[in-house]
Amino acid sequence: xxxxxxDSFSIEDLMQSFIKENNLSKGMQKIxxxxxxxxxxxxxxxxxxxxxxxxxxxxxxxxxxxVLREELSYGKEKIIKLMNEELGSSVISKLMxx
Length: 98
Known about the structure:
Layout lengths: L10 H11 L3 H23 L1 E7 L2 E6 L2 H8 L2 H12 L6 E4 L1
Parallel strand pairs: 2-3
Antiparallel strand pairs: 1-2
């Protein structure tokens, strides 16, 4: 009978290696950006957001309300900084409100 190895791995480590092996990191980043936007902006802004996209370090947010778009445009740099802090790396360099 073969000897059983007692190596144990955490689920997080296994998921990270699976994501790396299958080149899923960009897709996972996009999902995390969408979740972070909803979490950070709260239900009021999230309900008025129609789409959240990440393309080449540019976060593109499509909003229903032009008033909200104008209000958020004043704090673009702060939003970028807070989103990057929450994501743990410099994923976003530019924010477009559409």
